[in-house]
Design a protein that fits this description.
By secondary structure, the chain is an alpha+beta fold. It is 42% helix and 19% strand. The longest helix has 24 residues, at 273-296. The relative contact order is 0.10.
């Protein structure tokens, strides 16, 4: 039987296949009985699964990041698909096509890396070009950039998702900046490159997605500024010149303010043209990706409308 991917599942399907497991939790229902909750993923997305009447042995039978064989049924619940599992067993991975679990191919990732380098090396600002080169030749940084997701549950939540988001945002900045002469195109472009780099340290992604201790305690904004400062020091060593302090502060500000509002985690509101532009363009890229994903994964296959999504407070019109 051919594989049924997460976004293809419909209400009432019998499931007997392998998924990538994450976020396992042994929980208690209102009656005091234990149940196992976990996330099941493949290259098309992820879905919540529950195993009722679970025991400690079910929880300890596999680890986050393992491949697990699931037997059960898909069910539509509150507008979303979930899996009611009858059996959850760890597999040894034999016979599994890893391409079924990779959203971005290695070829796609390398094309994105090449585009990042092209955009950064095309900047006219010498200081920013030198700083960019220190990032590009740092093997540990680039390894993380190739692998990290942009999030755990929301937009670009898959290996390589951070890189894809950064390139998409840089492309938008590259197009938009020439329309506004008062914007510094190079600063905006570099801000797009560094705005989320702290997620390389904030998140864990080998192989399942989650948060590191640093991520939980510090967050990606602070870690992003720390990574930037380390690269500025390296740039000064390589060039023999001091990096302009005003430019450094401008870049730091773009990192800490790009969420745009205090309630969204920004310790500072955007206070420069480039920081304001970065916030809105970043929000645009993330929102479009998120809504596109809601449409592609929608369970109302025969309706021109998606189900109602509380996270955005509306349905989405898909058209006929």
């Amino acid at each position: 039987m051919s594989r049924r991917f997460v976004k293809e599942l419909s209400d009432g399907e019998t499931i007997d296949q392998v998924f990538l497991a994450s976020e396992k939790q042994l929980r208690t229902n209102r009656n005091g009985n234990l149940y196992l909750q976990l996330r099941l993923s493949d290259k098309t997305g992820s879905i919540t699964a529950m195993l009722w009447n679970a025991q400690q042995k079910h929880f300890e039978g596999f680890s986050n990041g393992d491949y697990v064989k699931i037997k059960g049924t898909s069910q539509l619940y509150n507008g979303s698909m979930q899996v009611l599992a009858k059996q959850v067993d760890k597999t040894d991975g034999q016979g599994i096509d890893e391409e079924d679990f990779i959203t971005l191919s290695n070829e796609s990732v390398e094309k994105l890396v090449a585009r990042v380098a092209e955009l950064l090396r095309g900047m006219r600002n010498v200081n920013l070009r030198n700083l960019a080169e220190c990032f590009l030749v740092d093997e540990n940084f680039m390894k993380g950039l190739r692998t990290a997701p942009a999030g755990v549950k929301n937009h670009h939540a898959y290996h390589g998702g951070l890189l894809e988001h950064i390139v998409s945002l840089m492309e938008v900045c590259h197009l938009v900046a020439p329309q506004y002469p008062d914007l510094d195109c190079d600063i905006l472009l570099f801000g797009a490159f560094i705005h989320d780099i702290g997620k390389i340290r904030e998140l864990t992604y080998s192989p399942d997605l989650g948060y590191s201790d640093q991520g939980q305690l510090i967050g990606h904004l602070v870690q992003g500024v720390s990574m930037l400062d380390q690269m500025i020091v390296e740039t000064e060593k390589q060039s023999g010149d001091d990096f302009p302090e005003e430019l450094a502060n401008h870049l730091r500000h773009m990192i800490v303010s790009h969420h745009g509002q205090y309630e969204y985690g920004s310790p500072k509101l955007p206070m420069t043209l480039e920081a304001i532009a970065l916030h809105f363009l970043d929000s645009l890229d993330a929102r479009i990706h998120n809504v596109s994903q809601l449409i592609s994964e929608d369970v109302n296959k025969d309706s021109p409308w998606t189900v109602y999504h509380p996270s955005i407070g509306r349905k989405i019109f898909k058209g006929s």
